[in-house]
Amino acid sequence: MMYSDDVPLETDAAYSFSSGSGTSGTCKNIINGSYSAMSFQYVQQNNSDQLISALRLGPVAVAIDGSSFAFMFYTNGILNTNSNCGTTLNHAVLLVGYNKDSNPPSYRILNSYR
Predict the structure, then answer these.
(1) Are 104 and 80 in contact (CB under 8 A)?
(2) With contact defined as beta carbons under 8 Å apart, do 9 and 36 qualify?
(3) CA triplet 73, 79, 85: central angle to 5 degrees?
(4) 27 vs 13, 15, 23, CA distance in Å?
(5) pTM of the model
(6) Where are the domains of the chain?
(7) What is the mean pLDDT of the chain?
(8) pLDDT tens for residues 30-61?
(9) Could you give the 3-state DSSP secondary structure of residue 50?
(10) Residue in 63, 68, 112, 114 with CA at minimum distance from that of residue 90
(11) What is the predicted pLDDT for the residue at 25?
(12) What's the CATH code, domain 41-114?
């Protein structure tokens, strides 16, 4: 979070993701972003009520295990697995929604892989 205090954030249109499809991407050194975070809060691990409260204020950055088989081979729809989803936090995603009424409750994420 403190990074955005010094370096304003870019929009996706101004700094779009470019990699993963056989094209080598390079980092752009753009320091003329348009947005910065006004505030932030930490959410206690494994506390879904706190997570939903934070989500009501806006998107939430979360860390997941991107190396688990459940996530690596996910293609679309709801990822619903009883297998171990992993515990090595090595990938960041943006939590943008939830459905507490679904069975089981589900979260909507925006992943940087496209």
Answers:
(1) yes
(2) yes
(3) 70
(4) 15, 9, 13
(5) 0.64
(6) 1-38, 41-114
(7) 76
(8) 566 777 777 778 899 888 889 989 999 888 98
(9) helix
(10) 63
(11) 59
(12) 3.90.70.10
